[in-house]
Design brief:
The protein is of the alpha/beta class and 219 residues long. 49% of the residues lie in helices and 16% in strands. Bound molecules: cytidine-5'-diphosphate.
C-alpha cells in the first residue's frame, strides 16, 4: 500500500504523514526534505542557485535516508551528514522552490522517491506525489488550510529556534512559495483528481490522522 499526501506549505503534511506511518508501521518519506537537502548543499558549497547543471548533478549524487530519532523525530541524513536542522533554516526555505523548478533536479529526486516507494508500505508527502511520483498510490490525500493558519503554525514551530521571523514574514514566505510551486511547468502543486481533500484549518494533527485512518478502513 502506498499513501500519498500532498498540499501546500504548513498544511500539516509532515506531522500527519509521520504519525500515520508510525501507527501503520509504514516507512515515511519526506520528499520536501530531499529538495531542501539539495538546496542546502548548493548554498554551502558555493553552487549558484541558477546553475541548473550543477544543481542537477547535486540531485543525482544525493544520498539521502530517513532515520527515526528520539521523540519520534525523523532524522534526515544527506551524504552521510545529519541535516535535520540545517534544511529548515529560513535561507533554505527562501531558495528551495527555485531549486525545485529545475527539471533535472526533479527528474533525479523523483527517481529516488520511486525507488524508496518500491519497497512498499510507504507514506510519502510532498507536492506532486499523487499526480506524478506515485499516480498508482492506493490512497491520495490533499491537505489544505488557510494561509494565515499555515503561517501561524510555522510561526509557533520556529519560535523556539531563535530566528526572528514575524508572522507576516511567514505569510509572505509561504505565499510566495505557494505561487512558485503551483505555477511551475513541471509537476506543479495541484490536487490529483482522485485525491481526498481535507481542510485542516482548526483541526489538530491527531484529528486529521484519525480521519485518514477511517478513510483507510473504508469509512
Ligand atoms: O515543510 P514545507 O511544507 O515548508 O515544505 P517542504 O515539504 O519541506 O517542501 C519544500 C519545498 O520543496 C516546496 O515548497 C517545493 O518547492 C519543493 N517540493 C517539491 O517541489 N516537490 C515535492 N514533492 C516536495 C517539495
Amino acid at each position: 500500500m502506498l499513501i500519498a499526501i500532498d498540499g501546500p506549505a504548513g498544511a500539516g503534511k509532515s506531522t500527519v504523514a509521520r504519525k500515520l506511518a508510525g501507527l501503520l508501521g509504514y516507512n515515511y518519506v519526506d520528499t520536501g526534505a530531499m529538495y531542501r537537502a539539495v538546496t542546502l548543499i548548493a548554498l554551502t558549497s558555493n553552487v549558484s542557485i541558477h546553475d541548473t547543471e550543477a544543481l542537477t548533478r547535486l540531485a543525482e549524487e544525493l544520498e539521502i535516508r530517513f532515520e527515526r530519532g528520539a521523540n519520534d523525530e525523523t532524522l534526515v541524513i544527506a551524504n552521510g551528514r545529519d541535516v535535520t536542522r540545517d534544511i529548515r533554516t529560513p535561507e533554505v526555505s527562501r531558495f528551495v522552490s527555485l531549486v525545485a523548478q529545475v527539471p533535472g533536479v526533479r527528474g533525479h529526486l523523483t527517481d529516488k522517491q520511486r525507488t524508496m516507494a518500491g519497497l512498499g508500505q510507504v507514506v510519502m508527502d510532498g507536492r506532486d506525489i499523487g499526480t506524478v511520483v506515485l499516480p498508482e498510490a492506493g490512497m491520495k490525500i490533499f491537505l489544505t488550510a488557510t494561509v494565515e493558519e499555515r503561517a501561524r503554525r510555522r510561526f509557533f514551530e520556529t519560535a523556539g529556534e531563535g530566528y526572528s521571523i514575524s508572522l507576516q514574514d511567514h505569510i509572505d514566505e509561504i505565499g510566495t512559495r505557494d505561487i512558485l510551486d503551483a505555477s511551475r511547468e513541471i509537476a506543479p502543486l495541484v490536487q490529483a483528481p482522485d485525491a481526498v481533500v481535507i481542510d485542516t484549518t482548526g483541526k489538530d494533527p491527531d484529528q486529521v490522522v484519525e480521519l485518514i485512518l477511517s478513510l483507510l478502513r473504508g469509512g
